[in-house]
Amino acid sequence: MDSRPALVGENRIAAALRARLQQSGPDRLSLAVGLILEHAFAVLKDLKPSEAEFEQLLQFLTDVGYATDARRQEWVLLADVFGFSDHVAGCSAGRDPTATPSTLPGPFFRPDAPRLESGANLCRDGVGAPLAVRGRVTSTDGQPICGAEVDVWHANGKGRYENQDPDSQPEHNLRGRFVTDANGGFAFRTVRPGGYSLPDDGPVGRLAQRLGLSLDRPAHLHFAVTAQGHQRLVTAIFDGSDSAIDRDALSAVKPALIGTFKPEAFGHSLDVALVLLPDATPQPNDLQKG
User: Fold this and answer.
1) Which of 85, 111, 178, 274 has a Cα-to-Cα distance from 32 of 20 to 30 A?
2) H or E element at residue 35
3) Which of 61, 74, 69 is nearest to 199 (CA)?
4) What is the C-alpha to C-alpha distance for residues 139 and 275, in angstroms, rounded to an integer?
5) Helix boundaries (H) for 69-158
6) Cα angle at 238 between 235 and 241, to 5 degrees?
7) Rounded (to 5) percent helix, strand, coil in the chain
8) What is the structure's pLDDT at 281?
9) pLDDT tens digit string along 59-112?
10) Confidence (pTM)
11) Which UniProt keyword terms apply here (predicted)?
């Protein structure tokens, strides 16, 4: 049972809901809902919104739902803009500092990217400045991880993702999945991504603009790595030469994630090192000991 005292001056409806939640048992869901209700009613008490203002809130939430579909995740964008996603991603207890920091997957991730052979070209429309990427996946002990799946996606040179630009880019442009070799290596060709502003044509973008929040994001490539015996890593490598590197709208840039796009005769190259944490999930014997 939740033994916390009721809030001083707690709304009678909130108190009744809180009592019902206490009867349902001390699980994480009821605890989360109880905390959200407490804070929500405290906000309502302090702001004393009018019915018209409350209707505007409900309309905003409705608009976020309408803007979300298989190609665009406005709810993820909302969580990203206000820092919820980055906070959760950075809260891994006891995280090894040698592991690659995690970042937000962003609202433009697609789980259905095609699997490609190492060295394949992600660019399906031939538009953009050539970029060659070489990567290696290792564990925190330095050992290469063979057979890891590396999912890659990024914006084009104009800062547009394929699923927000379906009329101008072919399906799955600048997306692909690779499997690492015996040395943990993978490689692909693509085009250099451009920086961009978060979408301002939806409810979240309009709200951010109204609040005076920056929408700028420095150029970057997303990586999601899955390997047996290791925790899944979702991260990004940012272009250190981008002028927006210090004003990322999502505050996701970390020193270890700033990459160097090296000039080459054909365009640019980028070396990527991705270090995964071993899976901390208790094994059956460990559970028996506990």
Assistant:
1) 111
2) helix 28-47
3) 74
4) 5
5) 74-81, 84-89
6) 170
7) 30, 20, 50
8) 55
9) 999 999 999 987 788 998 898 888 887 777 666 544 688 999 999 887 789 999
10) 0.74
11) Dioxygenase, Iron, Metal-binding, Oxidoreductase
